[in-house]
């Protein structure tokens, strides 16, 4: 991940009992995001502390290209498929200032 990338973090509250369906749907439609030429990658994380809370992080080449995607028909369709699972959420955006590679990555690389 290079410095200067634009990062988006979503916090999603999932309706009780719908977590597995949400995860399956997210995985099934994830290529809408990762297939975009400006997308660097995305991650789905489940809170270890709060029941029904998920975080989605996606990295983009830059903010203008993310904003262009954010208003696209593809993204609006993507959101419609996830919306039934949600009871709330928020979005935070940021620019990556620096990235330090951890020792475990260096050891694994050999």
TrEMBL record:
Q: What are the boundaries of the signal sequence?
A: none
Q: What is its EC number?
A: 1.14.-.-
Looking at the record, the residues that make up the ABM domain are: 6-94
Q: What domain of life is recorded for the organism?
A: Bacteria
Key words, A-Z: Monooxygenase, Oxidoreductase
The answer to keyword Oxidoreductase applying to this record is yes
Task: Please list the GO terms describing molecular function.
Answer: monooxygenase activity
Q: Which InterPro entries match?
A: ABM_dom, Dimeric_a/b-barrel
Keyword flag Transit peptide: no
Q: Which PROSITE patterns match?
A: ABM
What's the protein name? Antibiotic biosynthesis monooxygenase family protein
Q: Which organism is it from?
A: Sphaerisporangium corydalis
Q: What is the lineage of its organism?
A: Bacteria, Bacillati, Actinomycetota, Actinomycetes, Streptosporangiales
């Amino acid at each position: 991940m290079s410095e200067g990338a634009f990062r988006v973090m979503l916090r999603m509250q999932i309706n009780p009992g719908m977590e597995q369906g949400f995860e399956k749907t997210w995985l099934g439609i994830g290529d809408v995001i990762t297939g975009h030429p400006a997308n660097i990658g995305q991650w789905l994380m489940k809170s270890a502390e709060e029941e029904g809370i998920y975080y989605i992080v996606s990295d983009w080449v830059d903010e203008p290209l993310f904003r262009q995607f954010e208003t696209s028909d593809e993204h609006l369709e993507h959101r419609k498929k996830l919306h039934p699972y949600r009871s709330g959420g928020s979005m935070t955006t940021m620019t990556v200032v620096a990235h330090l590679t951890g020792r475990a990555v260096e050891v694994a690389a050999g």
